[in-house]
Amino acid sequence: MTGELLRIDNLVKRFGGLVATDHASLTVRAGEIHALIGPNGAGKTTLIHQLSGALAPTSGRIHFAGQDVTGLPMHTRAQRGLVRSYQITSVFKRLPVLDNIALALQSRERAGFWRPARADRARYEAAAAVAERVGLGVQLQRPAGALSHGEQRQLEVGLALALQPQLLLLDEPMAGMGPHEAERMVALLQSLRGGTTLLLVEHDMDAVFRLADRISTLVFGRVIASGTPAEIREHPEVRRAYLGDELPEAA
Amino acid sequence: MTGILVLEQALNGLQFGLMLFLLAAGLTLVFGIMDMINLAHGSLYMVGAYLIATCAAASGSFWIGLAAGIAATAVIGVLLEVTVLRRLYQRDHLSQVLGTFAILLMANEAVRMVWGSQPVPLNPPASLAGPVELLPGFSYPAYRLFIIGVGLAVALLLYLLVTRTRVGMQVRAGASNREMALAMGANVRGLFTALFALGAALCAVAGGMLGPLLAVQVGMGESILILAFVVIVIGGIGSIRGALLGALLVGVVDTAGRTLVPMLFGRLMGPEAASSAGPAVASILIYVLMAAVLFWKPKGLFPTH
Amino acid sequence: MTSLLDHRLRPAVAVPLLVLLALVPTIAGALGEDFYVGVASRVLVFALAAASLNLVLGFGGMVSFGHAAFVGVGAYTVGILMQEAGTTSAWVAWPLAFVAGGLFACVVGLVSLRTQGVYFIMITLAFAQMLYYLMVSLKAYGGEDGLPLPARSQVGLGIDLADDAHFYYVVLAVFALVFLALWRLLNARFGHALQGIRENETRMEAIGFPVYRYKLAAFTLAGAIAALAGALLANQGSFVSPAMLQWSQSGMLLVMVILGGVGHLYGPLAGAALFLLLEEVLVAYTIHWQFGLGAVLLAVVLLAPNGLLSLARRKGAAA
Predict the structure, then answer these.
(1) Chain A nearest-CA residue for C214
(2) Minimal Cα distance from C200: which residue of A?
(3) Could you tell me the residue ranges of all domains in chain A?
(4) What is the CA radius of gyration of chain C?
(5) Of A37, A43, C110, C240, which has the fewest CB atoms closer than 10 Å, so is most exposed?
């Protein structure tokens, strides 16, 4: 896969007097892992909201897979392959893991009104496979709310993965994870390389510099730099934005 | 439609609106801060009116009846809060609906048991029984002017309370962010109980004021409760300012609508339409108003969050 | 495996229950208390209305405070057809009532479902109030006094609805059919999606479900079923009045659903039965029966938070 999968053109989002997204522009190439970093309050989640369709931008355009999706509702974007996962875990807490993922898979099918959903064996088998992929293979029957935080984050990603997205928007997938769990998540994300394009927002710099093919830096709602990890590491504005925070040295 | 008629309707609307505000203020605070839907709020208004009527009859004085009734209703509000309502704060809205609906049923029946099914008389004080000449040729009942005065005074008091006192600050903090207010050390239990007592007192004042104009009877709380909910939705839940503006809007639209719409229909379409469609449209007006406000401002005029 | 999404018919419960219900006229006749056949009809009619509310509330998570309006639409359809068109056939009037209810619900839903939370509650209430005031003002259809029906609808096939027992069997048949249809619907993909929306609406949208469309579909169907209940209610009392549209009636329906257990298949039946039977018992006992009713409701809220059937689920199901 080559070429540009996602292009954000001069996106602006205003909340009254506050400019959360200030003419942000960036491109994500097909097949790459693209990280979005930036200090707190830079507007990363707001940007993800606009990409996924949860928030309408004040102005600017979003192009996905060659089409202008700026006005499309969230569910349409998800159907077209632009899927997000949430920073604050948003799963179906009262339902078992298997049902969580099966619901995601169901969105691809037409509504049925008579035949029992449980009779769709293929779908439940596929759901079990996705669960296995994200490391929840043995937890199928457990209510999502009973999972540990790290496992819930895995399910969070699993729900998005189940849709076989072209572009996966990950909002801090490693939020609140310990080193062990973070390691597992990194491995999972790396395994997606080539098939699924990833745009991930992350604070965990270690993970970012290990995973990312390219990095964009968001400061005060504006993309101030976009390039390879090496370029970003040396970028004066990026270093200034982090006020001397240690960016990982070249390995 | 003479200017005097319009003026009279405006004053009537102002008067009704201010009384609606008294109910809406308590309701919006409880909903905004405790996040509780309280269908029994109208019952406090009813109980207040009944108690004031009884005390006034027993003592022979409207003023004593008013004072005693307000105090007694506040006490009942506190008792209600401490025994039952407190347990509903943490529950979902549906449970609150069911629980407070149950209290509403019990209150209606309790009043019927104590006072019977016939309306109880409540007369305005003799000193306010006559008309006052506001403009040459335009007289307006002194009692209604008094109600407007009371309403404005209470509104001012509430404003001072909410903006100038520590308690008021906690209330405003609680309305916009409950968890934060708790973390900052607001004495939650005491605050909630005090709020309830205040809300109950306000209901009693409204009940006592409106009692002489509308009838003091069982079920008087239901119709005004719906209006109060419409008011707080229009005004924005948790906002006293919103409750005032919403109440004035609803009060004026509802009152003036009832007189002016049938007149308008009569002029344009004849007496048949005036008597059949007129009242219907007048009743529907406030809901159209609410829909219009929500369309323009989905969270009400002054949303707190 | 079972989860919240699954709703078992439980033939071990359903069959005896159906048999028992079918025998009500026989038993009542044997006891010489034919009056109770009418009571039982009322219970089933309200159970039908409550079941439609449970569809949107219990399974869809939409708190509708204007559901009585749809019941009223169905009732008035029957009444108006009888008066204006002389239509007495149930085969014409009842399906029309169903359609009318669905249409009205669709319109209300189109507007209301754009809102959330308490605003949704208020807008649904507002629509119901508007319809109420409209019917009060239409003197042609009885206005505030209501519209008496000259007779119950005609069914033909040797069934005479004027006979309370026949009427009861027809109501039971309608209820059973709708109940079965709802059972299938809830366990089908549509039902799973609807419940998913109840559980986490934002996530459902994010994983590709057109949430608004699902809610609107459920709301429309619920309105249609409620209108069907309204048609039966009009027949039950041979009377239609705006009182059927009052918000206290919407409140009562909510209470029935909550009492029986929100989101449980048998909840509405249990809730309607409990509420109306309690009312019957208390009415006979004291003139102040509403106090007792309120007290019982309050006790249920405080002690059985998820409605009565949740107690059964806790004890029975180990899933």
Answers:
(1) A111
(2) A92
(3) 4-241
(4) 19
(5) C110
Number of alpha carbons in the 13 Å side-chain half-sphere of residue A147: 29
Assembly ipTM: 0.90
Q: Over C39-71, what HEC string results?
A: HHHHHHHHHHHHHHHHHHHCCCCCCCCCCHHHH
Kindly state the tokens that stand for C168: 């009861």
Asked if the Cβ–Cβ distance from C206 to A114 is below 8 Å, we say no
Buried b (16+ CB within 10 A) or exposed e, A147-163: beebbbbbbbbbbbbbb
Instruction: Tell me the C-alpha distance between B27 and B203, whole Å.
Output: 10
For the record, the structure tokens of B245 come out as: 């503006």
Given a cut of 60, is residue B182 above it in pLDDT?
Answer: yes
Which structural domains are found in chain B, ordered by start?
3-296 (1.10.3470)
Say which residue the tokens 């169903």 belong to: C98
Q: Can you tell me whether residue C148 is helix, strand or coil?
A: strand
Which residues lie closer than 8 Å to A126 by C-beta, 6 or more apart?
Answer: A105, A162
Q: Quick one: pLDDT band at residue A2, thresholds 50, 70, 90?
A: low
Find residue A36's DSSP bridge partners.
A201, A216
Give contacts of B237 with chain C, Cβ < 8 Å.
118
C4/A52 CB distance under 8 A: no
* B53-110 per-position pLDDT tens digit: 999 999 888 899 999 999 999 999 999 999 998 888 888 888 888 889 899 989 999 9
Which stretches of chain C drop beneath a pLDDT of 70?
1, 305-319
Query: In whole angstroms, how far apart are CA B237 and each of B31, B286, C117?
Result: 7, 17, 12
* Euclidean distance between CA atoms B181 and B187, whole angstroms: 9
Q: What are the helix (H) ranges across chain C?
A: 11-22, 24-31, 35-57, 68-80, 90-112, 117-137, 164-187, 189-199, 201-206, 211-237, 247-260, 267-285, 289-303, 308-316
Q: What is the pLDDT of residues A165-213, one digit of tens each?
A: 999 999 999 888 888 888 989 999 999 888 899 999 988 888 898 899 9
Contact B284 C297 (CB under 8 A): no
* Per-window interface: B 83-142 vs C, CB < 8 A: 84, 87-88, 91, 93-95, 97-99, 101-106, 108-110, 112-113
Q: Are residues B280 and C137, on separate chains, in Cβ contact within 8 Å?
A: yes
Residue among C1, C188, C200 minimizing CB distance to A92: C200
Q: What is the model's pLDDT at position C318?
A: 34
- Pairwise pLDDT comparison (A239 vs A24), residue with the higher score: A24
The CA distance from C58 to the nearest CA of chain A, in Å, is 15
Residue A64 · residue A82 · CB < 8 Å:
yes
Residue B271 pLDDT > 50: yes
Residue range B223-242: mean pLDDT, rounded? 89
Select from C1, C203, C215, C265 the residue whose CB has the most chain A CBs within 10 Å, as the one to mutate to test that interface.
C203
- Establish if C118 touches chain B: CB-CB under 8 angstroms: yes
Q: Which fold has domain A4-241?
A: Rossmann fold (3.40.50)
Report the candidate in A163, A188, A146, A153 with the shortest Cα–Cα distance to residue A33.
A188
State mean pLDDT over A223-246.
82
Global pTM reads 0.88
User: Cα C248 from chain centroid?
Assistant: 14
Q: What is the 8-class DSSP label of residue B211?
A: T
Q: Which residues are CB-neighbours of B51 under 8 A, at least 6 positions away?
A: B68, B69, B72, B73, B204
